[in-house]
Amino acid sequence: METRPLTHDDYADEAESAERAEAWPQASALWIRAAEVCADVEQRNRYLDAAAKCDREVEVDELLAGIAERELRLPTLDVRGSDRLDFHEVGVTALRRTLRLAYRAGRDAAK
Question: Is the overall model pTM greater than 0.85, yes or no?
Answer without folding.
Answer: no
